[in-house]
Amino acid sequence: MGIFERYLTLWVALCIVVGVALGHVLPGFFGAVAAAEVAKVNLPIAVLIWLMIVPMLLKIDFGSLGEVRKHWRGVGVTFFINWAVKPFSMALLGPFFIGHLFAPLLPAGQISSYIAGLILLAAAPCTAMVFVWSNLCEGEPHYTLSQVALNDVIMVFLFAPLVGLLLGVASISVPWGTLLLSVLLYIVVPVIVAQLWRKVLLRNGTAGFDRVMRTLQPLSLFALLATLVLLFGFQGEQIVRQPLVIAMLAVPILVQVYLNAGLAYWLSRRFGVAWCVAAPAALIGASNFFELAVAAAISLFGLNSGAALATVVGVLVEVPVMLSVVRIVKATRDWYEAGAARAPTALEARQ
Predict the structure, then answer these.
(1) 3-class DSSP state of 26
(2) Alpha-carbon distances, residue 30 vs 11, 49, 160, 239, 279 (angstroms)
(3) What is the dihedral of CA 155, 161, 163, 169, to 10 degrees?
(4) Measured between alpha carbons, how far is 160 from 286 in angstroms, rounded to an integer?
(5) pLDDT, tens digit, for every residue of 320-334?
(6) Helix/strand/coil (H, E, C) string of the chain?
(7) Who is most buried in 31, 164, 259, 306, counting CB within 10 A?
(8) Residue 136: Cβ within 10 Å count
(9) Which residues sit opposite 125 in a β-bridge?
(10) Is the predicted pLDDT of residue 67 greater than 70, yes or no?
(11) Closest Cα to residue 246, out of 109, 120, 114?
């Protein structure tokens, strides 16, 4: 384990501080970087995400992708968490924390908008960043890719009606440009590039391939840290100006992340899912597709709305919180595998 991996928590904390400080000192620079977007997809962030996920996608052998059928229990658990638990749990947590517990401390006119933003965030399961979390916890890459692809397909059909149901809106304006461009930039193109590159590298033997992978690993983590600086830099002024509001909005997001991750992890253990699938299942079940959520909030409620701010808070907490989940699942691997080994098989359950 290199110095980046060994002290990742320290680097993350430093990047948060540096990002907030630079965002406050250099708002013009970060405003210009934030404005470099197409259909609400930030292009500098997209480049950094490429640097993060392409090394992970290089590890995937598409010839073995059919093996994901062995992990159908893990797929089922994550599907259940993403679409039957996550959005509806936030529809309860948001009103409890923002509409009731913290209501006296928040601007009354924005409370319903804050709650709407939190629901938008919960209704969009994560895509590209999951590759990073899965790689950090040594997750099964074929399962991760298959689950991300499944979520992308489902979002096309379920995002609008689900959000409409939970927000009580007859029809919503889905930011299709953001959704489709994000899938193209973060999934389709990187997968194609990685597979072509993989074929070229393997022509020279596995030794050359392994050497390139070792070289790319620090670059991937550096891109993760640079992404963190940018994300916190974009909102540096907001954090300094209204830290209490941001802290209160973060509470239901944090509760839901750990609730959904814990539930996915426990269900996976209960059904005897292999740890290499259960770990990314917990992470996929807890994380969010924040680009889509932010774009939908701006489209529905406006750039300066409480809903937009709530989804941005989701962006701010995503990386440090998901890294904490990575640490938890890795620290509990022995406990998990001891319990999963005793879980009944499908044949035993029928007998």
Answers:
(1) coil
(2) 21, 18, 31, 14, 34
(3) 150
(4) 20
(5) 899 899 999 999 999
(6) CCHHHHCHHHHHHHHHHHHHHHHHHCHHHHHHHHHCEECCEEHHHHHHHHHHHHHHHCCCCHHHHHHHHHHHHHHHHHHHHHHHHHHHHHHHHHHHHHHHHCHHHCCHHHHHHHHHHHHHHHCCECCCHHHHHHHHCCCCHHHHHHHHHHHHHHHHHHHHHHHHHHHCCCCCCCCHHHHHHHHHHHHHHHHHHHHHHHHHHHCCCHHHHHHHHHHHHHHHHHHHHHHHHHHHHHCHHHHHHCHHHHHHHHHHHHHHHHHHHHHHHHHHHHCCCCHHHHHHHHHHHHCECHHHHHHHHHHHHCCCCHHHHHHHHHHHHHHHHHHHHHHHHHHCHHHHHHHHHHCCCHHHHHC
(7) 306
(8) 24
(9) 288
(10) no
(11) 114
Alpha-helical runs (H) found in 302-332:
306-331
* DSSP letter, residue 60: -
